[in-house]
User: Which sequence fits this backbone?
């Protein structure tokens, strides 16, 4: 006799949970802020997979605080699946026993505390993902049962306006709601009618007006006043030796002063080289303030953004030919789409790292700091599914010497993946090491794999103050290691370089120093920056850029 199987267990579970929350819901889907913790206790069960929205910038901080106040006899051992854990309360959940396991992508300032929690056994680490990878698992094996999200505006029907900082919200909500999960939104303001419907009300179960606006971090703002002459020299090498050499038009910049320096010398040094219109025309990028002079000078045709940036909203709204705007006139970001653009539609990724080993593998996870990877691995790899050509992609592929060993005479392009870093980082910690700390972290956290941000076989260039190593031109691993040693400065890895071997690599164009590129070192100074401080960025924007108070000194 055939066993009768139920096919509505998720829906039944959803209805049971929501019935527990019903006494607190009034006026459509609205719950008073004071009742938030009780509602969370009503809908969350021990061992649930729970998402707290938070990424590089905006954070569902009020809901995270409310979750931390739940009774641990009712809610414990949660499996947190979330893009980022940059707030202290995210790790408080593990300290007090509400959460036990974590799958994430980025930790930022909590990297040190996260490493300590793993070491003490208070936190079980699933994996450090890329954003796209984690979003993908939301739809396969890490689907949240309850998601706590945030938006600028919400109405009584549950409609949400996510505005300038849409970021992860659509991916989280779709994965949760269409698997019969529960979506709870904190909003900065309850309104009768939202400015724009970014998330339809049917996909949201509960709306709570937060006592204060959600936390927003200006993560991508770099003050030009802190850019050094060495960073200007490296920026000159990037523009002349890589961007100009390959004609890179479509690209992504990682966070940091190195890439900020590149953006700020486009209207000066780039203009001098005659590269306007030939490089840096389309970006997958957050609205970096340091890109304002290049935009105003007519270098940039379009930018699609993962998220917003504090202070840049009015500027983006006034530059509708460059940024993606909604019918309401405000910018629309979307992390999943922008990550996809960075993976498939860009020809170059350039960013930094904390450590790079003698083979070229790099990681931002060290024994004492687990910063996570964010989106770097998706943009810092060769997208094997790519099928459309571009000049930069084809040129790099043609130079990739070992490609024919696998493809025969079949032509194929290759993404330019550039690690740009000084040979010594903060507090004179060497950037080049014999073995990544990721090995120790894997052992401490009992991970199957050391967490690597960019694997050596994806890396095409390393750019340091010493010069550029064109790794994809190397014929074998020994030659790649020699090229890495040649640009590793006075680190132990760099001191192992053999002068005759380095000269041979220079002769073949695998190593190129500033002199090889015809760059005058005496010109590498801050005078090349189109804006030398935040105030000058405001001037370039015509007063549209409104920098956060901590960046103002006037």
Assistant:
């Amino acid at each position: 006799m055939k066993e009768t199987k139920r096919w509505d267990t998720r829906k039944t579970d959803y209805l049971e949970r929501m019935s527990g929350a019903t006494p607190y819901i009034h006026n459509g889907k609205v719950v008073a802020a004071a009742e938030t913790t009780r509602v969370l206790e009503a809908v969350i069960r021990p061992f649930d997979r729970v998402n707290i929205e938070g990424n590089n910038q905006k954070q569902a901080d009020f809901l995270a605080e409310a979750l931390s106040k739940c009774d641990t006899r009712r809610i414990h051992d949660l499996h947190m699946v979330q893009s980022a854990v940059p707030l202290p309360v995210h790790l408080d959940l593990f300290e007090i026993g509400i959460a036990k396991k974590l799958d994430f992508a980025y930790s930022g300032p909590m990297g040190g505390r996260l490493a300590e929690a793993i070491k003490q056994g208070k936190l079980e680490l699933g994996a450090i993902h890329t954003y796209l990878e984690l979003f993908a698992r939301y739809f396969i094996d890490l689907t949240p049962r309850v998601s706590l999200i945030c938006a600028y505006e919400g109405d009584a029907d549950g409609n949400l306006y996510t505005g300038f900082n849409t970021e992860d919200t659509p991916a989280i909500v779709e994965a949760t709601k269409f698997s019969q999960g529960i979506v709870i939104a904190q909003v900065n303001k309850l309104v009768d009618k939202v400015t724009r419907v970014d998330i339809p009300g049917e996909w949201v179960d509960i709306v709570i007006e937060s006592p204060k606006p959600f936390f927003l971090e200006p993560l991508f703002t770099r003050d030009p006043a802190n850019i050094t002459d060495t960073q200007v020299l490296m920026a000159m090498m990037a523009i002349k030796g890589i961007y100009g050499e390959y004609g890179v038009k479509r690209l992504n910049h990682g966070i940091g002063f190195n890439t900020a320096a590149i953006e700020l010398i486009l209207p000066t040094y780039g203009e001098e080289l005659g590269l306007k219109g030939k490089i840096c025309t389309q970006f997958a990028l957050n609205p970096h303030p340091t890109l304002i002079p290049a935009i105003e000078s007519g270098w940039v045709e379009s930018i699609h953004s993962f998220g917003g940036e504090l202070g840049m909203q009015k500027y983006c709204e006034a530059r509708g030919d460059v940024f993606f705007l909604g019918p309401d006139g405000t910018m629309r970001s979307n992390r999943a789409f922008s990550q996809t653009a960075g993976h498939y539609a860009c020809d170059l990724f350039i960013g930094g790292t904390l450590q790079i080993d003698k083979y070229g593998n790099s990681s931002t996870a060290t024994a004492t700091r687990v910063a996570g990877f964010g989106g770097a691995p998706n943009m810092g790899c060769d997208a094997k599914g790519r099928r459309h050509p571009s000049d930069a992609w084809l040129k790099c592929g043609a130079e990739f010497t070992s490609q024919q060993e696998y493809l025969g005479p079949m032509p194929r392009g290759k993404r330019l993946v550039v690690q740009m870093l000084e040979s010594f980082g903060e507090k004179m910690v060497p950037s080049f090491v014999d073995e990544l700390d990721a090995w120790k972290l894997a052992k401490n956290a009992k991970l199957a794999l050391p967490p690597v941000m960019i694997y050596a076989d994806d890396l095409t260039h390393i750019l340091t103050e010493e010069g550029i190593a064109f790794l994809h031109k190397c014929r074998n691993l020994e030659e790649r290691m020699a090229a890495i040693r040649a640009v590793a400065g006075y680190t132990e890895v760099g001191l192992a370089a053999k002068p005759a071997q380095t000269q041979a690599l220079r002769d073949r164009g695998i190593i190129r120093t500033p002199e090889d590129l015809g760059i005058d070192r005496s010109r590498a100074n801050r005078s090349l920056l189109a804006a030398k401080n935040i105030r000058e960025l405001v001037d370039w924007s015509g007063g549209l850029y409104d920098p956060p108070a901590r960046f103002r000194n006037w």
